[in-house]
Amino acid sequence: MRSVRARAALGATVVVAVALVGAGLAVLLVLRANLTDQAGLQAEVVAREVAGQLALDVPYDRLEMREEEDHPVQVTDEDGRVVAVSKDLEAISGTGTDQVTPAPSPAAGSSTGSGDDGTGDDGRGDDDGDDNGGHSIPGRGEVDSGDPDFSNGTATVDGDTADYRFASVRATTSAGVTLTVHAGAPLAAEQEAVGTVRGAMLIGLPVLLLVVAGVTWLVTRRALRPVEGIRREMAAITASEDLSRRVPEPGSRDEIARLARTTNETLTALEASVDRQRRFVADASHELRSPIASLRTQLEVGAAHPELLDVPGAVADTVRLQALAADLLLLARLDAGERPGRTTLDLGALVHEEVSQRTGDRIPVAVSVPDSGVFEVAGSRGQLARVIGNLLDNAERHAERAVAVSLRAQRGGVVVAVTDDGAGVPPDERERIFERFVRLDDARTRDEGGAGLGLAIARDVAARHGGRLTVNGAPEGGARFELWLPSAG
């Protein structure tokens, strides 16, 4: 099932079905339990009424048993023999014995056969013996006041067989004979109510599930409609390779709207990246064309006229071409996400080492590194040396009489500052000079201005080491480049 709408509709339908089935079963169980308890209560009332009469020594054949209310009654003695049953009771089950024909008990008969002991009709009209909570009265029996025993069974009354809830109550006559009264209440009402509710659920559940499935399908379709629009637009962008196009953004503030905005932001970043890559390729091709063309011209002239070969010029062009190729290779590695090493190194020693190797500079570099303090950072020694060298090259290119480099600790890091006394960098150009192949107007000559990659490489390396590279005005009137790197600790 590949459709999100279908999966959502099916999932919602299954969840609702499980919930409804569980709730329906719970309702049926609770309803059946309540109705069964009500039937049990009715049966208990009838059983206690008959037990009260037995406690008053009412003869078995004169017991009032509510035959007209469809409450079958069965009375058994201690031996399980039936001593009395209600009128028209033809069969019974669930009471311990299925006998419905009374078998006279000699012991019981002797205790209930006489009407001269004060337990005749006049005594039967006195209910005080049953209202004493099971406590005996002199000359009277007693009814068990504990909870009765309940059971389910069937009974056939006047030819009609039905299910009943039976309650069993014990009574003791004045002669000490213990009798058990089994009285039943019909379960027809419970069965009818449960059947009605069950039928309604069986009819309503499929209809409700169809409604849930349909509503979920429609709601999901409406909710996913913007996603389909995004998909179509992305497919069109892929086919046309036009990164200037954008996907439609719905007016809502939900997840789909955020997805559309994020997609457009990704397209914007991708378009900018592709544009930068195209400009980079074009600029690199332009920068490589000049030294290659110059070197080829000199070699062709030397081949035709060896005495005219400018060997120093050819060497200079070759060195420049080699440096440019090295810069392009480093930028490619940085763009590919190459991670710098995590070697711990002393930045002060690295500065001294780089300055000591610059013997051919036209302006000596003044170094100021405090003797006290630790200037350890973690990173690639070669890449950080490249950054310091690029900053010194830039300062030498623009300085008039002085170039200085200094170190200091600052906010959990180390700052390397390179200053010159040249013309400086205009404030509106201070960010643009870090772009690739950018040279300001006063440094456009390739012999002195370079290819415009040194500062771009320096900033990229600083960022990948967790640091930053900024430029401001120097007190001497030139430019001040500050490289901040986090301490190794």
Q: What's the short version?
A:
This protein has 489 residues and is an alpha+beta fold. It folds into 3 domains: 4-193; 255-335, Orthogonal Bundle (Helix Hairpins), CATH 1.10.287; 343-486, Heat Shock Protein 90 (2-Layer Sandwich).
Keywords:
alpha+beta, Helix Hairpins, Heat Shock Protein 90, 7-stranded antiparallel β-sheet, 5-stranded mixed β-sheet
Could you explain how this protein is built, in words?
The protein has 489 residues and is α+β, with helices and mostly antiparallel strands. The protein has 3 domains: 4-193; 255-335, Helix Hairpins; 343-486, Heat Shock Protein 90 (2-Layer Sandwich), CATH 3.30.565. It has 10 helices and 14 strands. Strands 1, 2, 3, 4, 5, 6 and 7 form a 7-stranded antiparallel β-sheet that branches. A 5-stranded mixed β-sheet has the order 9-11-12-14-13. Helix 1 packs antiparallel against helix 4 (188-240) and helix 8 (381-398) packs antiparallel against helix 10. Mean pLDDT is 83; it is low at 107-138 and 442-449.
